[in-house]
Structures are given as C-alpha cells and as structure tokens.
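S.,

Sequence below, as promised.
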Amino acid sequence: MGDIVDVAREQVLEQGIGLRQEQLVEVLQTPDDRLPELLALAHEVRVKWCGEEIEVEGIISLKTGGCPEDCHFCSQSGQFTSPVRAVWLNIPELVKAAQETAATGATEFCIVAAVRGPDARLMSQVKAGIEAINAAVDINIACSLGMLTQEQVDELKAMGVHRYNHNLESARSYFPDVVTTHSFEERWETCVMVRESGMELCCGGLVGMGESLEQRAELAAQLAELEPHEVPLNFLNPRPGTPFGDMEVMDGKDALRTIAAFRLAMPRTVLRYAGGRELTLGDLGTRDGLLGGINAVIVGNYLTTLGRPATADLDLLAELKMPVKELQKTL
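The prediction came back faster than expected:
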C-alpha cells in the first residue's frame, strides 16, 4: 500500500492528476493502520487544489414522495411501502426555508422534487419559487428535479439556477441492481446537457448499497470523467420498506477510505458530505472526513432522513478552523 500512497502523493498532490480506476481499488484496500496517512494525504490534496474554504448548503423538498421510479434505496418511490407521503411545499414555506438556510451562513439552497423529470406544472412552480426567493434573500439557488430535456435545461438556466443536481447513483455496471425504471445512460445524458449549458453540475452517488470495491472505484472514475463541479457523497441509510431496507450500515473505516478515494480521483472537485454520514461515521468520523478530503457539507436535515443540527456542523468547522465560503453569485 505504501506504493499507492507514494504514487498518489506524486500524481495527485504534486501534479493534480486524479487516480485511475485500478489505482482507486488499491486505495479502497488500504489497511486500517495506514488509514490516517491516507486521510492526511487526501486533506493535503483538497487544500492544495481546492483551497481552505468549506461550502455550506441547505436543501428543501418541493415535492416529497410519490415518485414513479424504483430506486431501491429511496423511500420516496411510490412503488414501495415506505412511510413517506407525497406532499407539495408552498411558496411562502420555500422562501422561509431559504431564509433559514442563509441564516446558517450557507451559500447554496437546493430545491428538490421526487420526480422522474419535471412537468410543466412543476417547472412553473419552481420558477415562481425562485423569483420569490430572489426577492427575499441573497443566496445561490440549485435544483434537483430528475431527468431533463434540452428545453428544460435551457429554461432552468434562464431562471438563474446556479447549479443542477443529478446523481449517477451508482457505477454503470451496478446500476441495474439499483434502478430498473430508467437507465444509467439517461442520467448521464442529463448531466452532460447541464454541464454544457454553463450551469454548475452537481453529480454524485451512493455507496454501501452492496456494490464491490471495484464498482465503488468505477463510480469514482465515471464521476471524474463527467467532471462535475460538485460531488455529493451519500452513504446508504437503509430505509424501511425499500428493497435495500435490510442492508447493514457501511463500516465507518470503509466510508473514510471511500472519501479519500473520491478526493484522490477528483482533486479539484467540491466533495460534499451528504446523506447517511451521521449514521455511518458519527461525530468522530465526521471530523475525520473533514480532515480527509471533504470540502462541503449539507447542514440540517435531508429529504427524508434527519441530519445533525446545523449548529453542530458549524461549530465543528469553527473548531477545526475551516473558513465557510462566502456567497458568490456566479450567474
């Protein structure tokens, strides 16, 4: 393993060239006694190629539950018995959530809908929501509304959407084990259209869903090929009533190895803590990850699961002397 750490130090830290898929498998096989060294290297890479700042984001669900897709990890699918009801958020609540998010120091507010893709009604509601938020608070607005047509990409760009989130979810080779109602290629096409539009592309996935280490490395390599601005890294939080509801929670050390691997695959990318980290890593592991390549966090709760209180994350960033990124409107 000493070899891969040395190789990564030269290739990624010194040259800024991400590790290839076969190299990432070696990283994911790091023995426990070398893990602190690996995380320290990933942190050095992050600071050198991304800087010291940590980006903070809040998310809100515009439409929760009732989704027609069958993503096996997700309690928002209308196909499973998960206890999430389909609800719509009204515009005043959306504005209130954006204001509360901005008050935490977050620079990004993401509007999410559990849909295959947006219809005309949802697009008009998003447009009205964005206009109301922009009139009330100064914050970058991101959206996650499923798969898009080129026309919808152009519409969202015109609305002033700063960043679009559309995760690959899993590696191409494992995708059919995770979702059967749409294909990996369909997700990929949306991501390419978003990136080419000039909006920032936020694209990550989930780990701990029964994939092999090789497939975990494959996901990191496929994300690196896509070159997203930001990669949210989710750890499976098994939800009752879903096909993955009985899976065991991912081992914390495996989660930290994964964080390091993703950072070494994508030295210049915003790597964001997302769902499942509280359960998988706990407080101590959360700290280790922030010192192991992570440079962005979602504060507060997620779409259907509870997160840490925003103050707990902000206090931890202050304790680690990690500056929170200031708001910059880029569109």
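The longest helix spans residues 120-136.

Coffee later?
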